[in-house]
Design brief:
Helices cover about 35% and strands about 30% of the residues. By secondary structure, the protein is of the alpha+beta class. A 3-stranded antiparallel sheet has the order 1-2-3. A hairpin with a 2-residue loop joins β2 and β3 (about 30-35). It is elongated. About 10% of the residues are buried.
Length: about 80
Amino acid sequence: MIDIETDGLDEKKNHILEIGAVRFDHGKETYFTELIAGSTPIPAKISELTGITEQLRQDEGKEESRVLGAFRAFI
């Protein structure tokens, strides 16, 4: 199961904020969740909807290529 949070729906101008996933393997659940650091501000409406704030992203966000690599390995 995969959940991706973004700051909008336009793939040309919007960005991924967080990737979350659960892998089910023979009755065992493994979780993946990572915030992605970014340089563009998160719109207030998106922060309200997702709970992802600039402070949270600054404190816990990682480089996008690193997160995507880890996600590929996870899946």
